[in-house]
Design brief:
Strand order of the largest sheet: 2-1-5-4-3
Order of helices and strands: HHEEHHEHHHEEHHHHHHH
Strand content: 15-25%
Helix content: 40-55%
Length: about 250
Amino acid sequence: MRTLDTNDWILLNSIIYKIHTMDNLDEMRMQLLEQIKMLIDFDSADFYLGSPNGENKLVSPIFYNCDDDMSDKYEELDYSRGILYSGKTLIYRETDIMSDEKRIETDYYKNVYRPNNWHYSLQMVLARNKEFVGCVTFYRTIGKDDFKYDDIFILDLIKDHLSFRLYKQKMSGNITGDKLSVNAAAEKYNLTRREQSVLKLLMAGKENTYICEELTITDNTLKKHVLNIYRKLGINNRVSLFKMIKEKE
């Protein structure tokens, strides 16, 4: 077992302090990945949040040395979804649940790992009160050794702090920590121009009748746009929308 020195403990203390005190959740998650890099050797990482409306899906990714949102592939191909949404906080290596020989033959490995030159991974599943709140996955490129139990030990020291922060954020109805402007939300969640226009009018407090007249659309079309906005933002009502989006730019 690795013995942590004074500098390691100081760094861990800094990580835990930022988990609880940084207002902006995205900034906190990025700084966490950057600081964990000084304690654990990895080449890439992603940090997803659990959907705020209780669905078993991944939202709002933060990336370290990778920039592709592969949540759709995770949902479709990942053979560990049962572990991910179990409602338990867990830290495990991919090789702990499947032999390396079988793993490299899976569609998940072929479609997610191989295109990114990854081979081994270490995953931290975060949950509180039996509710999934997020997951962090660390990757090592082909040619490197697998993660060690020492790496699991380090993540074990911060997992409960991180689970508590994400759960608290989720219960507040604002998973990102700071409200987004309409323009920022449109860019981040790939809203269409029409969806952005609808969102802007909703945030201005306009009634449905006014929005339909302003955009020359039917009430049913408006409802479809609103549902698409909710789906893309990972929410299911206007209360959550106003908690997530700024009323003024």
